[in-house]
Every structure is written in structure tokens, then in C-alpha cells.
Amino acid sequence: MPVRTLPRRLAAACPGMSVLTESADVEPYRRDATAYAPAGTPAVVALPRSTAEVSAVVRLAAELSVPIVPRGAGTGLSG
Question: By three-state DSSP, how is residue 70 classified?
């Protein structure tokens, strides 16, 4: 499954970027404070620090056909 290779490939492409895969680590990224949007559980959470890292994340996800859900600061104002 392509999503399983994504964390390793992200780590290789962006050394030092945080890539979360453990249930307890990705849980806070499931949703923000809104009660109106359904929550899913992310398989991988990437925390890029630069536009170059964002580009690498998007490029690798596209290459592997892994969907991306961008998230900002999680203000709770979605909806």
C-alpha cells in the first residue's frame, strides 16, 4: 500500500521534518473544534517547516496517489 511507504520517503526527502504515524500522535490532527465536520483518522501527519518541504510532501503524495488534507493551525473556525 503506497501510504505505508510515504513516511520513509518523506524522511528521506526532508531530513528533520516531523512525520507522525502513531495513533496517539495523529489523534490531535483528526479535527479542529467544530462539531459540524466529520473527522477521519490520518495515516500520516507531516509537519513541514518551509515551502520546499510542503512541495516535497505534495510531490511524494501525488507520486504515490495518496490524498492530502491540508490543515492550518486548527483554530476551530471551520464550517
Answer: coil
